[in-house]
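Mods, move this if it's the wrong board.
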Amino acid sequence: MKIGFVGKEALLGIAGAVWCIAGFNIVRLGILAYLEQSWPLIMLLVAGSIAVFAVFWTKVFSKMLAKHVDRILAYADPQPFWRFFDRQAFIIMAIMMTVGISLRAFSLVPSWFIAFFYTGLGVALTGAGVGFLVECVRAVGERRA
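Not the wrong board. Structure tokens:
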């Protein structure tokens, strides 16, 4: 196998690791922002986090997960390790990172917004990462069977 080329199981594992790391980091930032809030507001923000998670999971990340799992599993030959996502997914990831960093770096939104939005978004991202890891384990098991 060529250097830098990996099988579909590794691509699924890489995607899972990338999204879990990103999701955990975003959840961490959201929780840190929660710690700055007063107790009555926290109860409302938790409801907001649940709503953000529900929207992002059902409308974005569950669909993205299915699309990329299908694409990766269709590969017959080893692929470059960066093919765990396609060009469009990398562009979306770059935009999301730029917007997220800008929101905090330039204080464009209050900390209560970071608390509920980042926590809900981060949990949805982590869920996608776990989904990729589950598919990775499943693919390894099928290859060994």
